[in-house]
Amino acid sequence: MKVVCAWCEQAGRVVLLGGKEDGNGAVSHGICAEHLDALRARAERKKARASALDRVASQVSKS
User: What confidence score (pLDDT) does residue 31 get?
Assistant: First the structure.
């Protein structure tokens, strides 16, 4: 079984993450380092926006 990045595959690329060809063509999916970094950065941006909205909501409720 070979393991490929699901995000790369969706973009039309095949990035082999591991595994080995065993002749049956089985494929499992994971996420490559590039896409994991992008996912983490996106999560951090969302977290920062949510934090900013919480501060605004807190200020509005004090008014």
Answer: 97
What distance in Å separates the CA atoms of residue 43 and residue 25, rounded to the nearest whole number?
34
What is the rounded distance in angstroms from the CA atom of residue 22 to the CA atom of residue 50? 46
Order of all β-strands in the sheet with 2-5: 16-19, 2-5, 27-30
Q: Rounded to two decimals, what is the model's pTM?
A: 0.68
Q: What are the DSSP E strand ranges found in 1-63?
A: 2-5, 16-19, 27-30
**How many domains are there within the chain?**
1
Element (H, E) at 28: strand 27-30
